[in-house]
Amino acid sequence: MTLHTARGLNDGGFFQDTLVALGLAKSSTPRKPGSGTPMRGLRRIKTSGPQTHKLPFVVMWGVTLVTAVTMAVINFFTIWIISFAVSWKFSTLQLMVDHLGVWFAILGFTMLCSCIALCCTIFIYTCAPAAGGSGAPENKGFLNGNEIPELFTLQNLIGRAIATMLANVTGYPVGREGPTVTMGSNLAYLITHVAALPFVRQWVDIDAPGSATSAATMIDEDRFEHAKRIVCTVGGACGMAMLFDSPIGGIVYMFEEITSSSWPVEVTFRAFAGTSVCALVSRALLNMCGTSTKAFVIYEWNPQPTGWSWRDVPFFMLLAVMIGPFSAFHTRACLAVAAARQKLMKRFSSYEPFNKMADAVLYGGLVALTYSLVALSANCKHTAQDAVQFVRYDCEEGKYNPVASLLLTTSEGAVKRLFSRHDANEIHFRNELLAFLSYTSLNIGLTGVQVPSGNFTGSMLIGGLIGRMMGALVRDYGPGMAVSGVYAMVGSASMLCGFKQMAVAVVVFITGAANDLGLVPPLMLAVTISLLLNKQINERGFDEEQILRKAIPFLPPEPPRLMDRVLAYELRDDLPPEATLEPEADYRSIEAALEQDKVDCFPVLKDGHCIGFTTRARLQAALEVWKATGFVEAGGARPQALSDAGGEQMGKLISVTVARESSFSGNVLPVKRLTEKAPYTILEDMPGPRLYALFAKAGAKAASVISEKGEQ
């Protein structure tokens, strides 16, 4: 079996077309006076293979660099606003504690956080309902090569950015990673749409033989989608790179996230350049600000070269052995809470969306109330030299509250305090245990709340607290030499690798945050042990489980075991007769085909044999031209409105132009001109794993199943 080869790769006119599009040359296409479309030269749609885009060098690199710089600017303003708002929120809390007493302060602080949560949820449900989550599972499904309707829109981009800021200011036990990666892909998608659309339009004659010329401009969907997915991957990598100031980490994260089967060769260098530019611009902007903004970048700006010794290795291993199974049960607990919350919301579905809005507001208040009360149980400590990093809360001047320093702050700030090797004697076991119990419980309970949330930093914080407690015990009772901050990093890596079920990216991020390459060996050892134990309990990570539960289209690199006993014949789609078209079809036949809402790829049959597939977008564009000729009355039945089928952007990406040079005399539409010829052909007895690779790795979207005699 051979794969469908890309057509048009040797097109000698491609370079000329590129120059024309860039304004560097004049078109040589002959036109008749008064004609708005080319002469009849291209009679059928011309497509490339599913893994090529053939877009000009300037276009792709321009989109890559613009995406990188724009993401850095968006990140700068995001953390600047969050920094200002969070500083105001906690300053208000401290002011209330000093003037009204701690109990009135707790009440006021809870009400304040509830009001911010209310603003967040009202904005989500009135302006951007799709922003009520991280968007990571959907983004992963899109980058895997699937169509996710209405995922990347300008409304979702702006809505997710604003909602993410409000959610972080509220104080939910979440981070910005998931929403930021989705925002990076969303931004890249929109920029590519604007920049690349002129280069994927094609003129296709759709008039019947013997009639006058009627032409439509159509989109080569495969080329367009491939280009978008390349730049969307770069946008997501930029998001992670600027959060952790780690370009390499952003690249490795996206590689492990979407797997090698969805990673085109050219993505590597584009991501390398894009993340470098994004990280440099982001760092330059951060250097223009005060230290408060740096608190939102998990990075040790002033590292202490205190490493680890061989006496610490057994404790690192013990820590990984404990956290590996714990991370698996933490994932299961999150999924169980999400399922329980979904059932609860269904019981009050008649009040939707107010039931979900109330859930988000009440949980925001619960988080603030819990943090405030738990922090009261801490013993105040005398202010150290670097105590500017800590929170005073209910303590007198000259002292600080260790628990409040971990809870009444941002997740990024808490992680930095845990990772620091300068405060080994500032936060002790009891305080870390209180913070761990409260934060972990609220982190699990947050799953399913309709707010933008990323659990990357949350998992790091939970693992860091466990590691920090282990480090405190080893320091007081064991022979270890490493400071507690190193144990926090090892615990954070062990927890994060289990939750996300990725290895290399975790080590890169933690090493970069520590600013110490000497930690690579113990981190790799801990990640290996933790991930092995985690996979013995959980087959998939949190995002993969979310994909399954939300029924998001996604093809893993390797086929599931159930496909070993499945043949191609059993996997066929049972299409209604209306969904199959003849090479030349009349208007009513095409209209009946478009009425099949669940079909987006229509087989074209000639003498009972499939000669190719056409798409809903192309048929819709052709019908619009046909109607404009006047052959079909404007008052006739109209095909149903098209949904945004992933990258085709029906109704948005397809523009139709008509050039009518004489009266229309045809009565059928030559569908064969809109058809991709030479479809993938599969024998009905082919084993499932063999044909699986055709869709998961070769990028096929449809195939024709035939018998040994060549029959459909």
TrEMBL record:
It is a multi-pass membrane protein. The keyword Transcription does not apply. Pfam families: Voltage_CLC. It comes from the Eukaryota. InterPro entries: CBS_dom_sf (IPR046342), Cl-channel/antiporter (IPR051280), Cl-channel_core (IPR014743), ClC (IPR001807). Its main location: membrane. This is Chloride channel protein.
